[in-house]
Amino acid sequence: MSDSSPARPASPVLDVWCELQCPDCRDALDDLRALRARYGDRLELRLRHFPLEKHRHAFAAAQAAEEAAEQGQGWAYVEAVLARVAELDRRGEALLVEVAAELGLDAEEFDTALIDGRHILIVDADQAEGKAIGVTGTPTYVIGGERLDGGKSQEGLRERVEEIADRLLAEGA
After folding, report:
1. pTM of model > 0.85
2. DSSP annotation string for 108-149
3. Which of 3, 27, 71, 83 is deepest in the core (most CB within 10 A)?
């Protein structure tokens, strides 16, 4: 049986390759908030993990972000950790669990998740995909098949993302 109802076009996707110990990713939060405010649910914003070797707590932070997402507060957690980048460098996993508790999440489950590694495969898969498409630093954005590197300079990136998103939305209309 065929369904003749019109299909709703899929929202454009903005993949944000991010690292939670990265000051540049922290600085990009204002742009991400502005994009969410402008597009709402018409633009799907997806956090993709790309922990850099130079930041020793980045891999654990990525796993913790996955646990936060599982507990229903992924973006709130990401923003809270990024707001404390310098402190994460000093305090490591203790800070990750503390931030979870501050947000009302199950901090004991965070601690357990960091020990048992239940989210390692998600982080590894994101990182492998990032490497495969040429991501070398963070933040890096991918929208409409175009990769935009914000690791060196974020100047003009939000405007470029908006141009591509507007085009994709117009094509889907």
Report:
1. yes
2. HHHHHHHHHTTTHHHHHHHHHHHHHTT--SSSEEEETTEEEE
3. 71
